[in-house]
Amino acid sequence: MPTIVLLALVGLAAQLVDGSLGMAYGVTSTTLLLAIGTNPAAASATVHLAEIGTTLASGAAHWKFGNVDWKVVLRIGVPGAVGAFAGATFLSNLSTDAAKPVMSLVLLTLGVYLLVRFTLRGLRTDRQHLPLRKRFLAPLGLVAGFVDATGGGGWGPVGTPALLASGRMEPRKVVGSIDTSEFLVAIAASLGFLFALGSQGIDFTWVLALLVGGLIAAPIAAWLVRKVPGRVLGSAVGGVIVLTNTRTLLRSDWVGVGDTSTEGVVLAVIALVWIAAVTWSVRAYRHDVAAGRGDVAAVGHGPAEPAPDDAPDLVAADAEPGGPRR
Fold first, then answer.
1. Rounded to the nearest 5°, which phi and psi values hold at 251?
2. Of 10, 75, 103, 159, which sits 20 to 30 A from 143 (CA to CA)?
3. Number of structural domains the chain divides into
């Protein structure tokens, strides 16, 4: 019984983070399942089965709050489903531990870029009127889906920073679209695991516990992402990516830090830098709002050049139920 309660609480916390930052549900939940002795394939299968329900609820909540771009959902979600099915089949037959450091290094680079970019310069709005191309979204979805299935999580850590870095979507719509499209990925990954493994090693009570926690948190997270300024959200996402992937690299054969105290010190320093960065972003955002610029100041627009698309995230979000007009 204590394990079931713990899983429900982890599902709640993981979905709260995932629904507001666009990542971390799979990583958080899979980490716990591995820690209590579940094999990688069964852990990923358990999490993805739970995600069918949590991503459906999260997507509906994000849609209600105007956080979803349906064109992006389809263009990234369908290739993502293909990649997830392939990844689930692959993981069921082969360990991917050797590939984790490579992917972690790529994600760490993206995380550092986002953390520095959003903390020091804020939200770029001058490209948000430009559409995201299929030739960018399709390969991104394919890779992110494969990583998500093989790693027990990865759809958000791969997809969210890539879309944020493009500068062509509002952060809240990046998070909402990634969370909504993950429903397709979760279904495809679950089918892949069930075809390859059957129900072997999957505890459906654990699936239900994770699901219940996630369903409770989904609407709260969708509301939260609509209220968090883009500059702050970008810094927060960057910090999550840097912290998570630094931990993976420290434990890999590449780095081989066997001393847990050394690992703890490194992660603690990164956490302090992350907290300082988010604090800086909050203060900078408040300063810009007081000056009548919001996130606009970060991209070089002066107070005499406000455009409708450049309104602060909070103001734009509260002005219309469907989000800012384009």
1. -95, 0
2. 10
3. 1
